Amino acid sequence: MGLFRRGGKDSTTDEASAVDAAVDEAVDGETEEIDELDEVVDVVAEPFERTGGPWDSAEVTDDIALVDLGAIKLPGVQGMELRMEIDKATDTVSAASVMLDGSSLQVQAFAAPRTDGIWDEIRGEIAESVTQQGGSVDDLPGPFGRELLARLPIRTPEGRTGHRPARFIGADGPRWFVRGVLTGRAAVDPAAAAPLEKVFAGIVVVRGTDARAPRDLLTLTLPGPANPELTPSEPETPSFDPLTRGPEITEIR
After folding, report:
1. How many domains does the chain have?
2. What is the pLDDT of residue 247?
3. CA 84 from centre of chain
4. Where are the beta strands (DSSP E) in 63-212?
């Protein structure tokens, strides 16, 4: 496991600029225009019935070593770097990102209704947000059920308009919802996505018994002394947050 990083969050008013900056960083500095997603769609569009995680804490009985982040527990992967995103206004942890071999998986957990899932509704909001900003979205079957393969608009250093890929995945659980965003090669390459998909599938959600409104962010915490190899620093890391009121894509700074 690699370096633990700590980022902060400021409010943003220009959603389009936030998307450009967030996606540009997330794809590991690549600047070429990416327009080959039609071929990728054929690879990832095979139907798949979801039968595994993420899991609820009540479903897990095995004593498996996990990185404890409060509402989310993550399995560790050799070589991964963990970044925690901090909302400076409230001094709370808003998201966790796993960086691995040039790809990224950002995860957040939210409260959900006791009976109905919210991923179908959230997918529609994400798709609307992306298309309004000049991108495109395909709603496809994936390893966790329906997911979105998005092409997010960016401006290249040469001044051209390009697109960056991102995969939005989600899982409804008992009174919770987990959303993941895969960026970098993992957004288009199944081999690069596999280890991060394994991390997502191994997530354990600790929902708690508190009454919460649907879409309330479940509290994350910084890793404790059990992870001494993680040391703090201060980078930026991107965030996609369509779960706030009104669909949006925002950047964590």
Report:
1. 1
2. 30
3. 12
4. 67-68, 72-74, 81-87, 92-100, 103-111, 136-142, 145-155, 161-173, 176-183, 204-205
Q: Is 177 inside any structural domain?
A: yes
Q: Which amino acid is at 55?
A: W
Does 210 reside within a domain? no
Q: Specify the pairing of strand 67-68 against strand 92-100.
A: unpaired
- Tell me the sheet residues that pair with 109: 178
Beta pairing, strands 145-155 & 204-205: unpaired
Residue 216, in any domain of the structure: no
Which range of residues forms the domain containing residue 129?
4-205
Cβ atoms 87, 9 nearer than 8 A: yes
Residue 25 lies in a domain: yes
The least confident of 97-101, 123-127, 237-241 is 237-241
pTM of the model: 0.72
DSSP line for 137-177: EEEEEETTEEEEEEEEEEE-TTS-EEEEEEEEEEEEETTEE
Helix, strand, coil distribution of the chain in percent, nearest 5: 20, 30, 45
Spatial distance between the Cα atoms of 54 and 199, rounded to a whole number of angstroms: 9
Indicate the burial class of 136 (C-beta count within 10 angstroms; 0-12, 13-18, 19 or more): middle
For 197, the token pair is: 């998909």
pLDDT at position 204, please?
A: 95
DSSP-derived letter for residue 65 is -
Lowest-confidence segment of 3-7, 12-16, 181-185 by average pLDDT: 12-16
Element (H, E) at 229: none
